[in-house]
């Protein structure tokens, strides 16, 4: 018998069908429970109620604006988390003195929930997009910082010594050409975690009315109107957009920066 390579694309097809089947069964079960057991749209809207609410929201013309505003808040928070978290993580992971100096401050601030910062977000930035972005930033910055720190702290010493022997003597060059490529999987994992945490902070960040638009703001708006079918629409949108972020990020990282892990070289 001859050896033949395994076609991974073919082996993944049944798994994809299983995932689709699970979603279909969950929707059917949801419809049955909502219609025949609960029987009250306020306590549990059925999938058909949610679809009708979605159509109504699309026709109203505000749904796209809600998504755009939420993406703006998210971009502000994640952008600030990357700009601040990655350099601090690099500095702490590369230099033990900086680590000893900053670690107590980081460990005191890190356990404080992002929601606890909402009063200061309002005081410092007012009811603006920046205040919503600040709450998201608080949730996202520590996963970025800690994973970057861990990645740089875990760079094998032999890599650094080999770089020095090959003429890479400046700290800047060692970080750029030796440490950062080695730490990149950990940095990427931190950014991925931060993206998820920051997106989950979005509802709280928009809760205090920084804008009349936004997925989180409208979720609470429709709850106050007791329109729970519309609430579920926004919940599902939050989940789908978060899933899209995660899938796009994984694809971008795997194909643009981590090709060397699978032996693929551009």
Helices and strands, with pairings:
Blueprint: H1 8-38, H2 47-60, H3 63-94, H4 96-109, H5 118-125, H6 129-153, H7 157-165, H8 171-200, H9 202-207, H10 215-224, H11 228-256
Helix pairs in contact: 2-11, 3-4, 3-6, 3-8, 3-10, 5-6, 6-8, 7-8, 8-11, 10-11
Overall mean pLDDT score?
82
What is the CATH superfamily classification? MetI-like
Find the CATH topology. Answer: MetI-like fold
Indicate the low-confidence ranges by residue numbers.
Answer: 1-6, 262-266
Q: Structural class of the helix and strand makeup?
A: mainly alpha
- Overall number of strands: 0
The main pleated sheet reads as: none
- Overall 3D form: elongated
Domain unit count: 1
Number of helices: 11
Task: Write the H/E string, N to C.
Answer: HHHHHHHHHHH
| Estimated share of beta-strand residues | under 5%
Going by CATH, the architecture would be Orthogonal Bundle
CATH class label: Mainly Alpha
Describe this structure in words.
With 266 residues, the chain is mainly alpha-helical. It has a single domain, classed as Orthogonal Bundle (MetI-like fold). Helix content is 78%, strand content 0%. It contains eleven helices and no strands. It has helices at 8-38, 47-60, 63-94, 96-109, 118-125, 129-153, 157-165, 171-200, 202-207, 215-224, 228-256. The protein starts with 7 loop residues before the first helix and ends in a 10-residue tail after the last helix. Residues 1-6 and 262-266 have low confidence and may be disordered.
